[in-house]
Amino acid sequence: MTNRNTFPEPAPRAQDASKVEPANRRSADRVPLTVSAELIEMQAGARITGRMADCSMLGCFVDTINSFPARTPVRMRLRKGDITLDADARVVFTQPRLGMGVAFTYVSSENRRLLES
After folding, report:
1. How many helices (H) and strands (E) does the chain have?
2. Residues 35/79, Cβ–Cβ less than 8 Å
3. Kind of pairing, strands 99-108 and 47-55?
4. Rounded to 5 degrees, what are φ and ψ at 97?
5. Could you give the residue ranges of the DSSP H alpha helices within the chain?
6. Which SS3 state, helix, strand or coil, does residue 22 take?
7. Are strands 59-63 and 73-80 parallel, antiparallel or unpaired?
């Protein structure tokens, strides 16, 4: 059986998260990093491509014209040069015509090491 690093669901907040600016909801430091991103909706297999604008150990923001709705489970593939990182994730919020915030739900140990570097 493979070793899985599962990330917990965010803790509930007293304030309605939909009324808080996305930058104010971050619970981990983000690093500016631009890589190509492909998100695949897990049920129907719909694909959206874009670029990841910044990243943390918990998630990232993906610049796209079109977005999946909040709470959509997706499979992410991030690429920069010959390095590819795959992760399962969930769309946390969308900003119309700008992109979506995505929280990682599963990252393999090997891919987690890539995120840490």
Report:
1. 1, 7
2. yes
3. unpaired
4. 65, 10
5. 109-116
6. helix
7. unpaired
The whole-angstrom separation of Cα 8 and Cα 12 is 12
CATH of segment(s) 29-116? 2.40.10.220
Residue 45's identity, in one-letter code, is G
Give 98's contacts (C-beta < 8 A, 6+ positions apart): 63, 64
Helix (H) / strand (E) containing 36? strand 31-41
φ, ψ of residue 16 in degrees (nearest 5): -60, 115
- For 8, 92, 94, the CA distances from 98, given in Å and listed in that order, are 26, 14, 8
User: pTM here?
Assistant: 0.71
Q: What is the chain's pLDDT, residue by residue, as a tens digit (117 residues)? A: 444 544 444 434 333 344 445 555 545 555 667 889 999 999 999 999 999 877 888 899 999 999 999 999 999 999 988 989 999 999 999 999 999 999 999 999 888 887 777
> Encoding tokens for residue 4?
């899985």
